[in-house]
Amino acid sequence: MASTCVVGLQWGDEAKGKIVDLLCEEHDAVVRYQGGANAGHTIVVGGVTFKLSLVPTGVLRPGIVAVIGNGVVVHPPALLKEVETLSAQGVDIGDRLLISDRAHLIMPYHLIEERLTEESTSAADRLGTTRRGIGPCYRDKVGRVHGVRVGDWFDADRFREHIGRIVAYKNRLLNAVLPDYEPLDAAAVADEYLAYAERLRPMVVDTTAWLHDAIDRGVRLLFEGAQGTLLDVDHGSYPYVTSSNSSGAGIAPGSGVPAREIQRSVGVIKAYTTRVGGGPFPTEQDNEIGERIRRVGREYGTVTGRPRRCGWFDAVATRYAARVSGSTELAVMLLDVLSGIDPIRVAVAYEDRSGRKIDRFPSRLADWERCRPVYETLPGWTEDVSKARSVDDLPAAALDYVRFLSKQIGVPASIASVGPDRTQTIQLM
Ligand code: GDP
Ligand code: IMO
Ligand code: MG
Fold first, then answer.
1. β-strand 309-311 against 273-275: which pairing, if any?
2. Between 3.90.170.10, 3.90.1150.10, 3.30.70.360, 3.30.70.1350, what CATH number should domain 3-99+206-427 receive?
3. Which residue of the set 13, 21, 152, 314 is catalytic?
4. d(CA 385, CA 417)
5. Residue 62: is the preceding peptide bond cis (ω within 30°)?
6. Do 3-99+206-427 and 104-202 fold alike per CATH?
7. In angstroms, what is the span from residue 353 Cα to ligand 3's centroid?
């Protein structure tokens, strides 16, 4: 009985991949439970960089089983390409990757629908999605009539019929709103997907049953969150969120494993804040501070290459996120990026539109976007901390900063990270 989850507590890219990779040492299987190829998790091992998107990070460690759970949305060409890239990098996936037959498939029309929604929205209101078809696929999943599951592959005739009905409907709809729309050929779409099925079918299982058996056998499970708690469709900064439950709340629906099985919940935070795409960002630093963080932290999206928006740590939002995700410990990442910034600010409260101080994360976007951060100012440090390997190697101001964040969030910090490599990690407890 030793299941763990790793969940981002901000707006994604908190360096969850690095923590999942480290925790693989104490686990036997890694499970993705939501999201899809919108995720980009970078892991650096001995100078070699691996980028994972749909494939669970655990696959980098020999012997670890990697599970794509029912809550994930799978784009087969993206998955096959990723498996090929990993193989070319020497990662032998063999029979270690399992894909849920309940997971939904991202289809070609999802990509077109997403482009349409994004491009028909004004630049100011645009969500700024990764355009990987995530939103339209989840929309069809909850809409039920047009959902396509991985398991549908197993009956080719029914699959063709189902795709035929959906494509006819989508063609009618898209034709009406897109002047230059080239109707999709249902038979060609079905053929294309059945060809993917040939290659992926050996990996497809009822992952829920597999996970239940695994728990009975004492397999140690590690749940890998994608995106972050503040991008959760229910609990995040709606509508500037992704379309899944990317907080800890998504684990049970996205895997079939009840929350009570998870004893340890690692909340991953950056020592500052970043955000890709649209939406309010009260602590954003659209100035030299933000530019410095972007340059030093190499804050460019793994999936889309977009520059990430950068700003000070927001303890109001993160405190809330830790409660939603049930974090029992924190991993504080990219501490090295703050070296040389003095002083450092942390938003410890907000001031609402009437000037009232609040320390709760507002549920309504209209209230939140009018909030101004109330900062506490902390001393910075000048030393390069990237070679620190123990608490004693850290400057006092850096350690005090980590303690301050932990106190603000109300959760103990167990790990500090001072660089992308596996070895650039400090155990705090
Ligand atoms: P994820 O999506 O949460 O897994 O995070 P990403 O991989 O998108 O972004 C985190 C980035 O920070 C990656 O490029 C990592 O290699 C890098 N990284 C991880 N930990 C550290 C750290 O402590 N310091 C620095 N400078 N980079 C880090
Ligand atoms: P990882 O797992 C950061 C953001 C997009 C956009 C919003 C909706 O690497 O942390 P979507 O394509 O999901 O419909 O886009 O969510 N977003 C991420 N931001 N890290 C991610 O994943 C993200 N996945 C989606 O930029 O604002
Ligand atoms: Mg990422």
1. antiparallel
2. 3.90.170.10
3. 13
4. 10
5. no
6. no
7. 33
Catalytic (active site) residue 191 = no
Ligand 1 touching residue 332 (CB < 6 A): no
Ligand 2 closest atom vs CA 276: 26
Strand pairing report for 3-8 and 29-32: unpaired
Peptide bond into 136 cis (omega under 30): no
367 is catalytic: no
Of the listed ligands, the closest to the CA of 19 is: 1
Q: How far apart are the first and last CA of the chain?
A: 21
pLDDT of amino acid 302 = 82
Contact 160, 188 (CB under 8 A): no
Spans of the chain below 50 pLDDT: none
- The pLDDT of residue 179: 87
Report the number of secondary-structure helices (H) and strands (E) in the chain: 12, 20
Query: Residue ranges per domain, the chain?
Result: 3-99+206-427, 104-202
In this prediction, residue 1 carries a pLDDT of 55
The atom of ligand 1 lying closest to the CA of 39 is 2
pLDDT in tens, 174-207: 999 998 899 999 999 999 999 999 999 999 999 9
Kindly tell me the burial class for residue 218, based on how many C-beta atoms sit within 10 Å of its own C-beta (0-12, 13-18, 19 or more). exposed
Name which residue sits closest to atom 27 of ligand 2, judged by CA: 277
Instruction: Find the catalytic residue in 27, 41, 104, 162.
Output: 41
- Number of Cβ within 10 Å of residue 382's Cβ equals 10
Domain spanning 104-202: CATH superfamily: Adenylosuccinate Synthetase, subunit A, domain 2 (1.10.300.10)
Q: Give all strands (DSSP E) within 29-143, no chain letters.
A: 29-32, 41-45, 48-52, 65-68, 73-74, 97-100, 104-105
Residues with CB under 6 A from ligand 2: 8, 11-13, 38-41, 127-130, 132, 134-135, 226-228, 231, 242-243, 276-277, 302
Q: What confidence score (pLDDT) does residue 225 get? A: 98
pLDDT of residue 28: 97
CB 104 near ligand 1, within 6 Å? no
Ligand 1 pocket test, candidate residues 44, 222, 334, most atoms within 8 A of CB: 334
Would the CB of 246 count as within 6 Å of ligand 1? no
Judge if pTM exceeds 0.90. Answer: yes
